[in-house]
Design goal:
CATH topology: Metallo-beta-lactamase, Chain A
CATH architecture: 4-Layer Sandwich
Strand order of the largest sheet: 4-1-2-3-5-6-7
Low-confidence stretches: none
Order of helices and strands: EEEHHHEHEHEHHEEEEEHEH
Structural class: alpha/beta
CATH superfamily: Ribonuclease Z/Hydroxyacylglutathione hydrolase-like
Number of helices: 9
Strand content: 25-35%
Helix content: 10-25%
CATH class: Alpha Beta
Number of domains: 1
Radius of gyration: 17 Å
Distance between the termini: 21 Å
Number of strands: 12
Mean pLDDT: 95
Largest sheet: 7 strands, mixed
Shape: globular
Length: 261
């Protein structure tokens, strides 16, 4: 009988973003500075990257990259040293060996670094690719330079077992965007979920008064269904790694220490 594979997962914080707090928790005021996580999954067959953070245009020429009217009151905090490939090298990984990248969705803070892995095939839900590609040029969440990179695209439809052994599975969690997906990773204690923007904050997993402003999601009803699926996993004892909670991520091990495995 073949032993199950337990991949190692490493988390990297690829800059920070200051945004209105009400986007994270509805009804709040002021600003919040959130981390931008990206992940490297070390599988016996190779390295797999889930989300890639900001585009380097954020620090090179943000005025040409992001519409000025959308920047207020948004601030980026990102440097060359925080790019994912640089951090990978510092942690002992070879980013040039990465052949697979997946994005939870195609908003700028999750796929801006795709182009830094030119040798990789990019896995994204077909519905997400079509929504992002057809979005108006001034829709702030989507910057076509981030994902129209000329890389080979693998357009996923529904659930996808990345390595064919059940250890790493892309799972739709739509609502935040039309094709949002989370990543389920098998570990010795069960299943862990990299939730992406299907759940921003840890408190949202347990408290209905800690929901984000779902009126600005693409599909509020689908968002709530996806959130409930994450809450059910959380209640069952699964580890759910939320998207952008600064307190949550301040307590998690970052590479070169493994998040899982």
């Amino acid at each position: 009988m073949t032993s199950p594979v337990y991949p190692r997962v490493y988390a990297f914080i690829c800059g920070h973003h200051t945004i209105p707090k009400e986007r994270m928790i509805a009804g709040t005021t002021g600003l919040i500075t959130i981390p931008i996580p990206a992940f490297v999954i070390e599988h016996p067959t190779g390295l797999f990257v889930f989300d890639t953070g900001f585009n380097r245009l954020v620090y090179e020429d943000v005025a040409s990259y992001f519409p000025a009217e959308a920047l207020k009151p948004v601030e980026f905090h990102f440097s060359p040293e925080e790019e994912l490939p640089t951090q990978m090298r510092n942690a002992g990984f070879d980013p040039d060996s990465v052949r697979l990248v997946a994005n939870s969705h195609l908003h700028y803070d999750h796929c801006g670094g795709n182009v830094l892995f030119p040798q990789a095939t990019v896995m994204v839900q077909r519905d997400e690719w079509e929504a992002a590609s057809n979005a108006p040029a001034d829709k702030a969440g989507y910057r076509k330079v981030d994902f129209h990179t000329g890389q080979t695209m693998d357009l996923v439809e529904g659930e996808r077992d990345v390595f064919g052994d059940g250890s790493v599975v892309l799972t739709p969690t739509i609502g935040h965007t039309p094709g949002h997906q989370s990543l389920h990773v098998r570990h010795a204690g069960g299943v862990a979920v990299l939730a992406g923007d299907a759940c921003y904050m840890a408190d949202t997993l347990t408290a209905d008064d800690k929901l984000p402003d779902i009126s600005v999601t693409e599909d509020p009803e689908s968002y709530l269904r996806s959130l409930e699926s994450l809450r059910a996993l959380h209640r069952s004892g699964s580890l759910v790694f939320v998207g952008h909670d600064p307190d949550f991520w301040s307590k998690q091990p970052l590479a070169p220490k493994p998040l899982l495995g």
